Each structure stands twice: as C-alpha cells, then as structure tokens.
Amino acid sequence: MDTNLFRFGRHLAGLRKKYNWAQDKLALESGLARSYLSGVERGKRNISLRNICILADTLGLPPHELLAFDSSHGMASDTGPSAAAPCDPYPSLNRAMQKLSDRDQAWMADLVRTLSLRLGHGVLRDE
Question: Which residues form the HTH cro/C1-type domain (predicted)?
Fold first, then answer.
C-alpha cells in the first residue's frame, strides 16, 4: 500500500542515503532509536512533527525538505540550494558547543588545536 507514511519513509531514507548517513549514525546523532527510524523509513511507524524537526536539524535540512516528497516517487526533485549536502557532519556536537559560553568555546577550540598538533594531524585554521 502506497500511503503517505510509506512515501515519507521512502523520502527520508532517500535523503539519508543521498547525504551518506547510515541509519545507525542518524539514530545516534538525533537521539531517536534505530528501530524507530527503520519503522518510519518502511512506513510502519507514525512520526510526529517534533521528530521531523529533530531529523531535519540532524541532517542539516529545513523541516519542509522532509515533507517535500513526490506522491508518485517518494523523492522530490532537487530544487536548488536546499538540495546541497549539509555542511555539519556532527550536528549534535555543534548544538552542544553552541550552549557553551564564548570563553568555553574558545577553550575547546584551543584544546582541539593542541590535540590535533600532538597527534600529528597538522594545524587547524579558523575559516
């Protein structure tokens, strides 16, 4: 049966694969259970607006992108800037960093630079 839940799930799976996210990684980064994501992608589980927003944030997409599925194919066509790959590979880490004060963020950046140098990964530069 080709329901909206099924089409949404197929669209979510397509976006996840398009941006090279494993289901396990998406579950870990979003805080949602992998079994729940699997059920959503197969059209077997209902999804709340809250969870749509969590998944969109984790994937680095606007929430409407997850709802932009074509009723006949499950994937909407690429429409420009929103079709670009997300820039942040670790959205949960980024969210945690944003909660820190400016001073603590600077301290963490210095720590990462120092560890990078000591581990032989070269110099990280601010862009």
Answer: 12-66
